[in-house]
Design goal:
- The chain is mainly alpha-helical.
- The chain has one domain.
- It contains 14 helices and no strands.
- Helix 3 packs across helix 6 (115-146), helix 4 crosses helix 13 (288-314) and helix 8 packs antiparallel against helix 9 (193-209).
Amino acid sequence: MTNPVWQRFLTPLRCLGSGGLLGYLIWQANPLQIWAAWQSAHLQWLGLALLVQFVGIGVSSAKWNYLLALRGQKQPYFWLLGVYLVGQFANNFLPTTVGGDAVRAVQLGRKIGSFSQASASIFIERLTGFLALSLIANLALALTYFGPSSDKLATSPALQIITMGFTLLAIVVAGASLSAAWIEQRFGQFLPVVLRHRVQSLAQALTAYFPQGRSLLLTMTVSLFFQLIWVGVHVACSLALNVQAPLLLYALMSSLTDIVGLAPIFLNNLGAREMIFTLYLSQIGIPPATALALSFLVFTIRLAASTLGGGVILFGGADLRTLSAKPSESSSLSSN
């Protein structure tokens, strides 16, 4: 696949944004102090953090398989787990946060013979995760205001607006996905003829894969469980550095990092994570150097877990040759 022209300019912009903010924070905190804090990390807690991260990946893969099973497309779990790991590898080692989804869509699309269904299943899997993420973020923010006085933390108005905007957008997108087929029937006629079939296939797939009733409740429960697992990774990394902080703070930092990191100026959350950690940990007396060391540990755990995807590729568990195929060669996957 060839990258659009705008994406060629976006990547350097993201490198500049993340690199500039990250460099400033490191310079302010003193690199030697960050390194000293990093060296003091207890390996047993880091091992637990890595194990918890693997559990989270397994849970997300199971949720993806559940969404596929609802449409009669259930796949072997360990195959999906391998594809998910490959996607994680692409996300964390390539300069993009959606490249991993493209990898997963191609692998699954080739297997089930429908690129639109594969893309829809991945989109809904991510969307329900975003809904759970926004729920935790808003709940954590509310508790900072209405919870016990000992848990009150200051949040800038900008972060509050970003969080509310993200939540509203996630809800709107969820509603649009649920009614995508109806929207396409009403307005699809205004699209260019060359796009109508592809849009129709994708719209029908989105509506079909969006869970409803008890299925939606179960999917959201699993999504919330995954987000709590991600909070657990932060807690384990914090204990590795002997940092003691309220549980609410970890929920706040983990969710806001992932929300702010969606901004196109950040690369793999770099800069956003360090800014959030420094902002909140400083309010409970944690030095900036320790806050940055903790943020780097969390990122390292995520990178370490995703390296398994490289092993899946190395041993032939994923065929990435289709990613370099011409659009005309892969477009046939969009048929249902």
